[in-house]
Amino acid sequence: MLLEIRDLDVRYARTHAVKSANLDIKEGEIVTVLGANGAGKTSLLRALQGAVKPAGGKIRFAGEDITHMSPADRVRRGMMLVPEGRQIFVSMTVHENLLMGAYLRQDGDWVRDLKEVYERFPNLANRRDMKASTLSGGEQQMLAIGRALVSRPRLVMLDEPSLGLSPLFVNNLFELITQLNRDGITILLVEQNTGMALEVAARGYVLELGSVVLSGTSTDLSQNSALAEAYLGGGHAKTSQTA
Amino acid sequence: MSGYMTGILTVLSINIIMAYAIFLPAAAGQLNLGGAGFQALGAYATAFLSAKYGTPSWATIPAAMLVGGLVGGVLAFPLLRTKGVYLVLATFALAEVIAGAILNTTALGGAMGLSVPDYVGANVPMIAAACVTLFVFYLMATRFGLVMRAAHDDDVVTDLLGANVRAIRVVAFALGGALAGLSGALYALAFSFVDISTFNATISIYVLLYVLLGGTQTAFGPILGATFFTLLPEVLRSVLPQVKAFLAGIFGQTGAIAPPDESWRFIILGLLTVLMMIFRPEGLVTRTFIERLKGALRGQGARRKGAVA
User: For this UniProt entry, which segments traverse the membrane (chain B) (predicted)?
Assistant: First the structure.
């Protein structure tokens, strides 16, 4: 098991954002976490990356207890979060943004990984010295993902990557996610675009008000009519069935 | 060189160093409105050591930097718990506390000030300003400079990528304190007298203006801002009477014209500041501006490869 989450609790001052959640991700899988706004998806990711301290429970990565580790130590072990809303460094160039992804790399191999990112995203290579704020929304998302890849992650956690992207670009994005997975990267995909997410993921978890209320293979989840009605909204489920 | 020119160059050098003292934390996303406080620490450290123990300038200057750097580094921990406008207020209050403490310390001369027996000529501040400028340019081209700018853009994501934003900001703040201490030491040694009323809030505000109007994105900003705003009042000093005489001439007045009031210089300065905020909110020198300049200098298409690689 690459990532094991046991009875994880995340609390803020007044809210109980994640309630004893249990999730597992095997090496090489794509697993999706679905849920409406405020279901606790982002809080879960923040706890996984070490941005908030969990109130209880355990997180294990590759067999090692990382519950109380700093974000830096988690990055060193191969976890990388692509935050919601394409948070890139806007006043820095594309190249400088990618360099930040290699911030903790001690080995010299990051130069090769950086080259690979440029090969994977030729648009970024063409705009290497341009300010990141001048990129289109889709290119900014590619930059955020590229920046994560330069750290050579074992597990990439994507927080609603399709948010605000054009439908055409959403297709490219999910194509890219499948490709990354084929290249050996385990993926935790948090999404509201349930149809697309269940298409690329092998398994999924559904969060509601901080608790895991459903889990199973993508096929089971997309055929679960109760789930479609209650948690995902009928429209989304239909798209996934026709697709 | 005339005494007037030497005086201007000394003040300009001190202001450039002060501008970089404020620039370093600003480049990492922290506004310090307490510059005068750190400058006072350096000036009084130098003045005290020189007056009381006869310490030579080669020792008092590093001592002043050490005092500024240590106070900056230690106080950065509580100060940097605040953000945005609260940090600006906290640093402002800090400068007032430092001024109050010095004013009430008899060993430091209190309201009377301290005479500094030691003296350095204009060449020392000028060389120091050149060294500080080179140092900051170098620093901004390193990994540390890169991560400072990242922390400026987005501290949460910088943390997520594994950089320790807090440590970076403490170091930037301490380095800024050391540079402010240096500028204070040079002030004390160049003018042979320190008086706490010199290191007032106006200084803190002006230096922050140099940096914000010059631009916080590149190391070109502070030197340009400091030079522009140090020389502008001097230029206006000679230009304004001529303008008034010319205008008076148009309206048929002849004979001796009384020179315009001093306050006009500040009105023009204020007007320029407002105009800059409207038209160049990111400062005079931005990264885009430099890229364009490089492009223009190199002719068509020859774009410079990333300098930080």
Answer: 6-24, 57-77, 84-103, 123-141, 170-193, 205-232, 239-257, 263-279
